[in-house]
Write a structure and sequence with these properties.
The protein is built from two helices and eleven strands. The strands form two sheets. An eight-stranded mixed β-sheet has the order 6-7-8-9-4-3-10-11. A three-stranded antiparallel β-sheet has the order 1-2-5, with no helix packed on it. The longest helix has 8 residues. The radius of gyration is 16 Å and the shape is globular.
Length: 153
């Protein structure tokens, strides 16, 4: 998932799982929609994941109903224990949430403007939208730990 989200305005947003056991509130709901084509997202979502970068200011009501799957060293995925709704992809390092676009209650005019792991996208689908595209290597370069600077002698 992409770390940059300075292209679009932010507003608050609310959403919920299919059964209503979990309510999500987001303080910084971006209008920028990204699609992830990585193999894990495609297995998790049954296709590419359409997600919104919601930053770290996300709250959940009904947290006892959230199950967490640690999908990698750096990220985890949450889903509802009752109905199975996919709730979020979260980067552990900075507590950054990416929430599936379809969870939000109010109609939002999301702008599909970028795709990540484009080199992992299978050939059996294609989007007509003109978007910014990032490869796996470009994504990992964004999230790689920065080398610590050596103290000056």
């Amino acid at each position: 998932m992409s770390n940059s989200d300075s292209r679009s305005p932010h507003r608050s947003g609310d959403g919920r799982c299919l059964c209503g056991s979990i309510h999500i509130s987001v303080n910084n709901l971006s209008s920028s929609l990204e699609v992830c084509h990585c193999g894990i997202c495609r297995k998790w979502a049954g296709g590419p994941l359409f997600a919104i970068n919601c930053g770290s200011q996300v709250t959940f009501e009904g947290e006892a109903n959230i199950a967490i799957f640690n999908s990698s060293e750096w990220a985890e995925r949450g889903f509802c224990k009752q109905c199975g709704t996919h709730l979020f992809y979260r980067l552990k390092q900075n507590n950054q949430f990416f929430i599936p676009a379809g969870l939000f209650d109010q109609p939002v005019d999301f702008v599909f403007d970028h795709q990540v792991f484009i080199d992992a996208k299978p050939s059996y689908y294609e989007f007509a939208n003109q978007t910014h595209m990032l490869t796996e290597a470009e994504i990992f370069a964004q999230f790689a730990p920065q080398p610590e600077s050596s103290p000056s002698p």
